[in-house]
Design goal:
The protein is mainly alpha-helical and 131 residues long. It has two domains: 2-73, no CATH class; 90-129, no CATH class. It has six helices and no strands. It has helices spanning 13-23, 29-40, 55-73, 90-100, 104-113, 118-130.
């Protein structure tokens, strides 16, 4: 990789390689290879293409590639189909609308239809008390 950057020709390649190896210690070789390809092909943002990347920049790009490889190898989750819900009858929806708009007869009918619903039953009892 060092030979691909002309401004880096004056550095000691052995020392530079040791520094790179220290920086990428523990990173899989596939991620290192992908990062090197990105630097050599000039696809890394904010990198001066005349100089070889610093050890820290190279290691950072290697870690990004490692994360991308791991993300691609994870099993994909499949979305579970939604269970169909029963449709509410149109007349029940009309009763709910009427009750929400203040219809006492609609509230009474709803209380008869759903006697164990505490909200509807309470409203019906309240209306009975008002009479």
């Amino acid at each position: 990789m060092l030979s691909g950057f002309p401004a880096s020709s004056g550095t000691d390649p052995d020392m530079q390689i040791r520094a790179y190896l220290l920086a990428i210690d523990g990173i899989p070789s596939e991620a290192v290879w992908q990062a090197a390809k990105l630097f050599i092909s000039g696809k890394v943002k904010n990198h001066n293409r005349a100089f070889a990347p610093s050890c820290a920049s190279f290691a950072e790009q290697c870690r990004r590639q490692q994360a991308a490889i791991e993300a691609q190898s994870r099993p994909r989750l499949t979305r579970q189909p939604e269970t169909p819900q029963p449709k509410v009858a149109a007349y029940k929806m009309q009763l709910l609308r009427d009750a929400a708009n203040g219809s006492r007869s609609a509230r009474r009918k709803l209380a008869e239809m759903f006697p164990d619903n505490p909200i509807i039953a309470k409203a019906a009892r309240h209306e009975e008390a008002l009479r």
